[in-house]
């Protein structure tokens, strides 16, 4: 009966993954909201009897399922971003300025805000408070599709200069690029919480954390992604052998091969594999911007991403009605509300308000765009992964409370941002169309 139920749930998930985006296309309800709700209903039926649903006891399964989902999403995000990033071009780096400010200012402030709230106000142990801030730091716009960029564009076919792609939609670009990078950049802070719980005070491990976990592993991950992406890009588009030029054969499974290779190389080299995957995807995208093969690869990844994302959310809904929120208290509710409605919007505005570019320049955001970008910091599958990963590396007595709090925050974010994404982005798009420029 247990295996039959698993097949039934998997089949239902696949059916919904295909149908929901079209059914809900004109409704202010995102598919993730519906999937979580359906999962909650399934969780009340006998279908789940005998299926292990405890994320603490079954943390390894949760970790690997969410890990694979994130990897697929990162590959899709990297392939979807059209705006180039030229290492030697200062103008190119400045065009990404909203992303850098969200990563360098907003993300650490959100981690610190949640950690201080948990430790100083609510009295949670310092290691658990830091872990809570770290696991809730990655954003995940794939859970609200209206706030992410679409698939790869062809500048030549669409009549655009290669450096002008996506520059009419700074909000979607900033949120998508932020999510692509902060899924990997959250790792150092998760490791800091693990070290705090298992290796003593900051004085004991602080220097190693800064030099290795914060700098060394980030650099290795980025370099691994650049190397794998460069090699695969050369092979796919410019190989001396026609049989190796996969772009001419339109074989989109190269995207999956690149994903696994980049992640493997990054992890074997002791770097951050998430950063390697995202960097690899961007490098493959940069290898040839005028080829339909980019869209073919993105379509394959996008379908897998949709399937795995909705599967995770369906299972999350099932667990919500099977004890996942049993340890939720007013403190956990306060953390979730503070992050979604206070910390992210306020710290987002702080970060985006530091040395902003003029709104008519690439990377420039008007007041309304800054407000929307600051608000739509969707929390999702990355938080579930990091929590299960950390709990498998160190002992946290607050494990069940952490799961209840993180699950509540993710569901709150999915609902709030899923309901508001469509009307807000449509309003911004309308303003942009009326003015003939980015909405201000």
TrEMBL record:
Major location category of this protein: membrane
Protein's membrane topology: Multi-pass membrane protein
Any one cellular-component term (Gene Ontology): plasma membrane
UniProt keyword annotation of Transmembrane present: yes
Keywords of this entry: Antiport, Ion transport, Membrane, Transmembrane, Transmembrane helix, Transport
Residue ranges crossing the lipid bilayer per the database entry: 61-81, 102-122, 210-233, 253-286, 307-326, 332-355, 371-389, 401-422
GO molecular function terms attached to this record: antiporter activity
Designated name of the protein: Sodium:proton antiporter
Biological classification of the source: Bacteria, Bacillati, Actinomycetota, Actinomycetes, Micrococcales
